[in-house]
């Protein structure tokens, strides 16, 4: 499950890259934008502001779910659907980014999602 907390080698991620403000896109549409990125306990993740899509709440997404990053278009593509993101353990407060048990539950949820085929771009 450790790989859920690391960017996939073919994602286009560059160490130190600032993704704040990038549009986040799931398999079936946009989910929001990167509000911030963080790493606690070796668990690197993005906090995504969903705007009105999920009633103004944010979601926490492990970086292992990132399928691709397009720095010119400022987009981050995820290897999951909008419904899967919405069904993830609910993110309520920033303190949860420092809660090892909460992060583990999020990682476990995304780790159990069915694998996606990669698409050529």
From TrEMBL:
Domain of life: Bacteria
Record-linked InterPro entries: Bac_photo_RC_H_C (IPR014747), PRC_barrel-like_sf (IPR011033)
Name used for this protein in its record: PRC-barrel domain containing protein
């Amino acid at each position: 499950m450790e790989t859920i907390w690391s960017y996939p080698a073919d994602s286009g991620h560059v160490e130190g890259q600032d993704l704040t403000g990038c549009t986040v896109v799931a398999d079936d549409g946009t989910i929001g934008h990167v509000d911030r990125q963080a790493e606690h306990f070796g668990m690197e993740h993005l906090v995504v502001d969903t705007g009105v899509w999920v009633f103004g709440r944010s979601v926490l997404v492990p970086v292992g779910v990132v399928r691709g990053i397009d720095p010119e278009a400022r987009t981050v593509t995820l290897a999951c659907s909008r419904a899967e993101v919405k069904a993830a353990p609910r993110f309520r407060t920033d303190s949860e980014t420092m809660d090892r048990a909460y992060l583990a539950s999020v990682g476990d949820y995304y780790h159990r999602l069915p694998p996606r085929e990669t698409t050529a771009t």
